[in-house]
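request received
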Amino acid sequence: MNTLIVISVLALVVLYLGLFKAGKSLLPVSVMGLLLALGLAVAEWNVNPAPIYKGMMLFDNFAIAFSAITILGTILILLLSKNYFEKISEHVAEYYTIILFALAGIMVMVSYHNLSMLFIGVEIMSVSLYILAGIKRRDFASNEAALKYFLMGAFSTGFLLFGITLIYGSAHSFDLEVIKQYVLNNANGGISPMFYTGLSLILIGLCFKIGAAPFHFWTPDVYEGSPTLITAFMSTVVKTAGFAAFLRLFITCFAPLADFWVPTIIVITALTLFIGNITALYQSSFKRMLAYSSISHAGYMLFAIIGLGNAAINAVLVYATAYTIASIIAFAVLILVKKQTGSDNYEGFNGLAKKNPFVAFTLTIAMLSLAGIPLTAGFIGKFFMFSSAVAQYQIWLVVIAIINAIIGIFYYFRVIVAMYFKEGKNLILATPIQFRFVLAVSAILTLVFGLYPTIISELI
Amino acid sequence: MNVLILIFMPLLGALLALVAKNYAKQTALLSSLVTLAVASFLLCGFTPDASTQYLVNYPWIPQMGINFKAGIDGISMLMVLLTAGLVPIIILSTFKHKYENSSAFYALVLFMQSGLLVVFTALDGFLFYIGWEAALIPIYFICSLWGGENRIQVNMKFFIYTIAGSLFMLLGIIYLHLQTPTHSYDIADFYALQLDSQTQSWLFWCFFLAFAIKMPIFPFHTWQPDTYTEAPTAGTMLLSGIMLKMGIYGVIRWLIPVVPLGFQQWGHLAIILSVIGIVYASIIAFTQKDMKRLIAYSSIAHVGLIAAGIFVWNAQGLQGAMVQMISHGINVVGLFFIADIIINRTQTRELALLGGVAKPAPKLAIAFLIITLGTVALPLTNGFIGEFLLLNGVYQYCIYYAAVAGLTIIFGSVYMLRMYKAIMQGNTNDLTVNFKDISGTEIVTLFIITFLIIVIGVYPQPILHISEAAITHLIATVNAKL
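response:
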């Protein structure tokens, strides 16, 4: 539980550092603080599975595992941000602070034990993100992204809140344990229609947050308009947190009502996969492609919610980790390429491998991982997802997923083809040391998890 | 000494080749020779009975029931020998090439060898799948990086085709895993399953698609001629010599014994497709003007016969398939090597532009003749033994199929000898008059190949002996479940 406190305090400390013009110390302090938070989270492993703060939060292994990934992802992204925010504005400290506040919200989202905490966590995170999306004050696209994100986000929060209210109305509590008991006690027909309505509204609200079709319309514009680093943060860490929240609620409380909501999720999954993949296929901008592909990855992760149970939690954990580290590589290289060429398009990657073998190699691993090719973490993620769906006899859903995996190969390989097989301008990318570090660590993790996933998959 | 050393030796070699920058090809050759030595060592200690030997079994992802389980029986042994034997020949055949970034090239070749060895020894469904894809990724990069003009599109098609097939196989593997009582991926548990015939029917297609695309069987072959033509010659050799055997091996080990009832329903169709493929590919091979394409189509025809021999599922057919897989591997590597030599010296693949090469290059002419005769299945060459047994097997199943499939021998002679004539005989022209005869490593490579062709042709008994017990046992297992 100390993790949440450490992160919140850290955010304030960083804010004060900015006040005293200690610009150089921002990054080291944030990273050290996050490492401390990570250490504290891991220290509570298997220790205290009882709800705390009068049943408001529960720091079980589920919460710890997802805290660990999100903190790790944030650290990697912060490492990339050296000299990045400085170009956007003078007030650098605020950005670190806001990212840390968003992370604090995420901590709440992965460890809530009370629906009011879910709402508070989602809001802490979302409000921070609205600001981050609009961080480039004079940039039109960034402003558009912030506004769209805010409107859509507020709208979806409305759904979520209304859903929570209706659930409260029928179960008479926000507490997950009480709601679970209510469902179990009334499973044979005694559940009021109000409860089902609430469930549906929560489902819609959460689908907005994770960007699943048909509630995905905000994602491409927001992801494209926001600064690349913020996009990386939103499409990895934030998405993971959204799934953690989704999974926690549905596995704890709504599992007995699976017959009611599983068909809906199946339709949402299939739609998300097709829409994400087919639109990604037609993008000429790498960044927009990543935005759409993140929609399709949400589709794969929804498999776990259909699968339910501990295996499903494992599956989401593995998938989210694989997806997060691979995406961070992709966004990091995108930042490097954009700095040199000034565009997000595939053409910027042409012939990159000749002069930058290391960067090209890591991006290749990332693309293979996102495409789900064996020996990378992404494959293990897909494999777990497919297994959890087949276990529920959703064979057709898996067939749809396979078709989508094949479509995915086309656009992920476009980058590999551009880098290795096409002639380009022989750019030499200036790769700062912290980029090299992040790329190397992420690539190694991708391969290690791909070869020996037992390391993370045995956690829960 | 066990399978692990065999599997990981090429990987080690790949790393060394990456490090050894300027000496990459020597390092690669040395490493592949060590692998061959390991394989020979395993062969020496191998007892040709039906058992699986050199078994290794380590937990890999325990909570999913995945183990690193591998071992060698008579069928695997032959495939391991084929892989371990052909890779040094293929590496040796590239010695006169100067590849840009050669350390990466040789590292990928060795990486692929590792994947192939995993496929041929895996006894765990998940491990098999990993090996299956691990062999595909390097060959995609080999073909795309060092290939011809249209390499990007052609290899994308190849990659998409094969991965589409294999993803369905993955679905099948996961499904079988969930049906096993202990939730394992062990092949023995897969064999023990008693699924109803409707389930087995669609599972058959999951696996069959992957294997049929890999071999390839008509009508899943459309990626093959383009890929073979555009790939660098070493890549073509890997694809045709070893990789397509993955598909055939898959049918023997992972398709028919796992879903015998599915096989019972669809095996007949598979035979028909195979036989159609033989005739179809042969006819197209007649009309080819491009040397590499002709060999590519001849390969489809030969594979069609091997596939037919397996799907009839009797001892003759299977034994023939085992011998023919080895023979075809050797012959097709020889053919592509000779094509490579000719293309490098004349800069053309067009048969019409060549002629009279035999005069300036008598040594090449002899080697080419022996390999051609091996390919057209002349008695006392390796091709004869395999095709004879295969046709015998098909004959036992149905005489009409055997009659049609037997056309392969006639057709094969026609198009192969036509190619030989167009290239080697006739008058020399401007392109071929100064043709330099083979020398150095080329002689060594071709000598090994021709030597093997004749030795196996005269005395195939050792090969038959290695796989016999395993095949009889496998057939008995399947027949018991039908």
